[in-house]
Specification:
With 258 residues, this protein is mainly β. Helix content is 2%, strand content 50%.
Length: 258
């Protein structure tokens, strides 16, 4: 898949392939906001994303999506990205694969009248956020793949006790069960030179991936609510140990042009 769980993988769509993606995340499974009263989060929707992504060449793809947004702090999000695979691992020649991903997101939600809120948006440019990522991965045999994802996120407008630019280092592993099914684990650790959000937690997810002809299906558990690097890296507040993790899924359908 072109994604791991929250973030991108090094994979790109082949030239001329269009993928339609539907992504959904429910509410907390446990904790104060979960449990049987919400059917373990199934009554609630943390976020929903619908997107179209396209392979321009076998090494370059682009995408455009729209998310409901979590409301902490953004709603009504449009995101776009471009990904280019610089290196592809080959036996005996190139030891790893490398891709570069640039992402932007824009919130068109109604601006808050409270000037202390990030969603106040004094200027239109304050609605934008960006990320730049280098994704390095290596496949070990037929079953195991590992990846590192150093990522920079920049937000044009943040709270007074926050920082505009931050750095995160992601790590992921994929263990193949069969030729079409896999178990995935993904973790992002956020670094900052200041007291960056004492309530901010690190994004952690586990997933089961099933690939069929033309379809990609992923079911996951994660403590992150939002989609995309500009959302789940700076705005993950939930704690696995408090039951603040949720069920989610992604369905991708590929269409091949003539």
């Amino acid at each position: 898949s072109t994604r791991i769980i929250n973030g991108h993988s090094i994979e790109t769509l082949n030239k001329g392939v269009l993928e339609f993606r539907v992504e959904h995340r429910f509410g907390d499974i446990a904790g104060t906001a979960g449990g049987v009263q919400t059917l373990f989060g199934l009554d609630n929707s943390a976020d929903i994303r619908i997107a179209f992504e396209y392979g321009i060449t076998d090494k370059m793809m682009i995408g455009l999506g729209r998310s409901k947004g979590t409301g902490s702090p953004y709603k009504s999000l449009i995101d776009g990205f471009a990904k280019y695979r610089v290196l592809e691992q080959t036996k005996g020649k190139i030891p790893l694969s490398l891709a570069m991903i640039g992402t932007t997101s824009y919130s068109y939600m109604k601006a808050s009248e409270d000037i202390s809120q990030v969603s106040h948006f004094p200027e239109w440019k304050h609605r934008f956020a960006y990320s730049l990522q280098v994704n390095v991965a290596r496949k070990f045999g037929e079953r195991l793949s590992l990846a590192l994802m150093p990522t920079m996120v920049h937000r044009n407008y943040v709270a007074a006790d926050d920082v505009n630019t931050l750095f995160a280092l992601g790590g992921a592993a994929r263990c193949g069960i069969t030729s079409t099914t896999s178990i995935l684990v993904e973790y992002y650790h956020v670094f900052s030179n200041s007291s960056f959000r004492p309530t901010n937690t690190q994004s952690l997810g586990v997933a089961f991936e099933w690939i069929t002809f033309g379809h990609n299906f992923t079911v996951h558990l994660t403590n992150s609510k939002g989609f995309g690097e500009t959302q789940f890296i700076p705005y993950t507040y939930e704690d696995w140990l408090k039951g603040q993790f949720r069920l989610g899924f992604c369905i991708g359908r590929k269409f091949q042009g003539e």
